[in-house]
Specification:
Strand order of the largest sheet: 3-4-10-7-5
Largest sheet: 5 strands, mixed
Mean pLDDT: 90
Distance between the termini: 95 Å
Structural class: alpha+beta
Helix content: 40-55%
Bound molecules: protoporphyrin IX containing FE
Number of strands: 14
Length: 524
Amino acid sequence: MEIIRVIVGLVLFSFMSLVLKLAFLWWVTPVLTHLKLKRCGFGGPTPSFPLGNIKEMKKQNTTNTVIIDDDEDDHLSSSSSSSKPSHNIHSTIFPYFARWQNSHGKMFVYWLGTEPFLYIAEPEFLKNMSTKVLAKRWGKPNVFRNDRDAMFGSGLLMVEGNDWVRHRHIIAPAFSPLNLKAMTCMMVGSTNQMIERWCSKIYSGNSEIDVEREVIATAGEIIARTSFGMRDHDKARQVFDKLRALQMTLFKTNRYVGVPFGSYLNVEKTLEAKKLGKEIDSLLLSIIESRKESKNKGQTYQNEQDLLGLLMKENKLTMRELVDECKTFFFGGHETTALAITWTLLLLATHEDWQNQLRDEIKEVVGDNDLVDVNLLAGLRKMKWVMNEVLRLYPPAPNVQRQAREDIKVDNIIVPNGTNMWIDVVAMHHDRELWGEDADEFRPERFEDDVNGGCRHKMGYLPFGFGGRMCVGRNLSFMEYKIVLTLLLSRFRFKLSPRYRHSPSIMLSLRPAHGLILTLEPLQ
Ligand code: HEM
């Protein structure tokens, strides 16, 4: 009897400890953080347990549909070919943030499940945050790191602290000017193959093309060739297909990130994501093994200075780290650049004057040469303004997240250890107080004399992030953007198809939900 009583006592004690531990984890600690933030003056919508503010966020997300208008302001749901898409997208893609901003200002606290997030659309705070605090003292929210583990693992995008410093140091040289120059031929080759595909479609009577799908495939091929030295396109395609499936599973389905046991609310999707993550890992492992083999056989055609070569050099990374970096770069290295090009083609299709101006500039600077001399690309000034303006209106990376890894003082505010932050890049890029009344209009000339496009605060324009964690691949994307656009604009005139439905939406990145269907007219 005595023994039974002891066992029951122990079980009860363990149960109570577990309940207390969970209460601390899910409620006491987050509430204390929230109270500290409240004391600093931050308001926000009222959360409820255990969903936080998710219910409101999900309800309003369903309004994210077509926005097309004839004169920039009116939202109509028609899609005639003469219509111009409205670029006033913040309240469509993040309706809840737009609403909460109206009632609580540019900084407030909202809750994803039991995780409080400090929402930031205030550039002055970001300036102080990035200039006075070392990049390695901020981490990435644990809640996202866990949720996106299958996709990025502990690759450069997610790794923190001294490990981040070590990884960044190994990876940065892969994007040196010399290495970038060596990639030109492959970029031109892959783009010309896409152009040939488009030409044969047009000559067989189909001049309408979903250019988003095509450009994403080409950008994928480019990163596989330039950074991983891959000639086996089938294997690269398998990785991209699985990454895309994983992206859809994680970001297009009804999931409850931040909610206790949230992954069990949609077990099927959680298991699917895990399975896809494992399949991607094993494909990448085989890519790494075959590179090792070819190196052992003394095959010298591989560029030891390309990204994979540098990652494998002197065994500085463990096999797990190596696979996670490959995942990160397979995904991050193609999707964002492809989306920048895709949104550009939409804007050029609806602004023929700019299409013509860029074509004239290409003729003047690059000439009619199909091979594109990389040394001439810097002369494409107007193209750079267009790129900047597209990244402002449609930033492919629409938000940036951080988590404080210690109590951090930013001006008079103490950001408590563990605070999650959500930096709303789209909100700042469309903020009339920062850009003026024409904030939602496509006006590339705003970048003519000012790299910041006339923004009233230098931290109000952040397409590539900020501080030490600024995008490591941005020079590669500048080059790829200019090469691909130069070749495309020299061969085709672009018009918006009547079948296009303007529906920018968030699937981690900012994408056209129904692709980008354009009508192409060959120029020669
Ligand atoms: C138009 C194209 C691109 C855009 C808009 C873009 C945007 C961004 C942004 C906003 C960040 C900061 C994320 C953060 O602070 O949490 C970032 C980081 C990063 N980007 Fe890009 N990116 C682009 C192209 C690329 C390319 C081509 C690559 C790879 C070849 C790449 C790889 C990365 C990596 C690895 C990081 C993490 C850097 C770190 O934390 O040290 N990106 N990018």
